[in-house]
Amino acid sequence: YSALIPLLKFYMNDNAIVTAGDGLKGRSTSTFLQIVSGEGITSLDSLLVVDIDLVTDSQMIDGKVELSETAQRMMKQDERKFISMFGTHYLRCVVRGGKLILLVKIRSHSPVGKEQLDKEMAGLAGTLSLKDEAQFRTKMTKLQTLGTLDWVLYTLGGTVKPPETLSLLEAVNFALKFPSQVLQQDEVRELQYLGYWLLPSVPWSFSTTVSSYQQYTVEIMDSLTDIRGLEDEVGNLKNLRSSQLTWITSNGWKEIGEVESETKNKRKALSSQFTSANIEKFKDIGKKYDGAAEKLKNELNEILKEEKSYEMGEEVYLYNAKSAVYVGQKNYQGYASVSKTTPIVIKMVPCPYHDDDDNDDNGEMEAKYRNSLVTIQSPSFPGEVLCLGKHYYTPFWRAKSSYYAKECSWRLKHASDPYKSDLEFGDTFILNNVYWPGFAFGVDATGEWALAVPDSGSSQMYGTTLWNLKKIKTDDDK
Length: 478
Description:
Elements lengths: L4 H8 L7 H4 L1 E2 L4 H6 L8 E16 L8 H9 L1 H8 L2 E19 L3 H12 L10 H11 L4 E9 L11 H17 L2 E9 L8 H36 L10 H24 L8 H8 L2 H17 L8 E4 L4 E4 L8 E3 L7 E4 L22 E5 L6 E4 L8 E4 L10 E5 L14 E5 L5 E6 L5 E5 L4 H4 E2 L3 E3 L8
Antiparallel strand pairs: 1-4, 2-3, 3-4, 3-5, 6-7, 6-18, 7-8, 9-10, 10-13, 11-12, 13-14, 15-16, 15-17
């Protein structure tokens, strides 16, 4: 195990590439999260993956492998000295090549449009040969007209790194030229190490000596893996800062940065100590870093827990991510509106109207999804609540004398997790009207008007009902 040091040092280097999964270059490995999550994969979304996998060279020690006579003498004289100098494994195989992944998400404009899109995409499925390149470009160009696109391009190997900004067609052209680039500059795809004790010329006692270090080596490797995993997790958070994690305040990001810095320092310190020269110290090194990642992960979770915390009645903005609009000012007739730039402050307050069927929580001040009824209020319109009336497809603001009316009560419902209880920042939720439970507060399909949208499978044809809480930013956050 301790001879994995060269591999581990290579892996733990900030710019190292060991496998396709760890070394892919592109817009960001976390952009994948934004593409397949965000508002989530809806019934109108289709995914297309272009995968190019290349192996340019494979170098392996063929035939019988034996230690030299000098190495055998050193091993017999002092096994521990041999391990400290050469480790416990030898490099058997190196595979070089390249890899490219182009991930495309296309959101159709309607269910009928999605059927057409899926037929077009079915024609692209399969293995691509050189003679198919022109047809492939033509079909990919047509896909751009069938919906809203988002995509990401990752590469390993090649002479040119993909630019940050590319059109989809430019990305396709880059992908088709990629194999010729890899032939000029490939990368390590795979390293294979084998233990010395598998060699026929190695005495049995060497295996016994190796096993005495194995436990400590495994512990150190586990700690390194956990620390690196936490480092990647923080990186994912940072890449989602401007999209899904806008509810984290500047102070929260500062604290997350401190966790990231400490995680990197521990990873680099442990990597520098994890060498065969320190093999006699592995036990102490393992104890020192055991649980280090878990402790830092707990700190990170506490930061996120505090940032996500929401109390019913707290002043916020209501934001519709799909349409990129906030609840805005009412018009002269009292109807609610939406705005991209001028939101109004909103308060969701437990509704005083309840009965045994409608509100088991009895109007308590906790922000609960299950059986939670609220009224929607705003300091911009003192004494008024947001309501929905018969024959009115646009929610409107009404005097607080209607406070007890079911038309002015809304039921909180998490958009995807029926078991989630507490409402938090970062959640996506739906507000169904109590009196008209088949309708939810939403935004029309154009993204320009507040609307009572049918809360059904076809609701996307009329608009979107998915809302998020947005914090009112302080000067530090702006």
